[in-house]
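$ ./design --mode recover --in tokens.txt
reading tokens...
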């Protein structure tokens, strides 16, 4: 069996904290690159970051199928939130109840893959996902300005 290696770049953000929030996801796999940007409603920056991870893992499982996910998919999630990276890697405790719930959802989704790691990267190395967040927010907020 061949291992399928994926690098996923995620970002989440809100305008106001909490405020209108969006996520950006770039999935780089063996054959192609997929990009997603979505408005997620009202959230804090940290909640949006978690929602981006959850969206990315669900989307990848949907794209490659349950069997391949479990047996072959090796994933490295790149994110520019040092706090989130440390929380997901078990180095920081999570005190906020809502973030604990989101962490548990990520933890459960991780079980659907052969391996999942989380790596902090500098903000300038995450421009693709950041751009998708801002595009999703700009698009949604422009509807409200009518």
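writing sequence...
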């Amino acid at each position: 069996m061949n291992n399928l290696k994926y690098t996923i770049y995620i970002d989440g953000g809100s305008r106001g904290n909490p405020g209108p929030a969006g996520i950006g996801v770039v999935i780089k796999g063996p054959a192609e690159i997929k990009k997603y940007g979505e408005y997620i409603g009202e959230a804090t920056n940290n909640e949006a970051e978690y929602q981006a991870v959850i969206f990315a893992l669900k989307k990848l499982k949907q794209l490659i199928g349950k069997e391949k996910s479990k047996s072959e998919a090796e994933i490295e999630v790149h994110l520019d939130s040092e706090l989130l990276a440390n929380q997901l890697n078990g180095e920081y405790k999570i005190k906020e109840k809502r973030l604990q719930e989101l962490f548990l959802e990520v933890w459960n989704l991780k079980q659907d893959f052969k391996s999942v790691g989380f790596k902090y990267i500098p903000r300038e190395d995450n421009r693709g996902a950041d751009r998708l967040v801002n595009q999703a927010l700009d698009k949604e907020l422009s509807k409200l300005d009518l």
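exit 0
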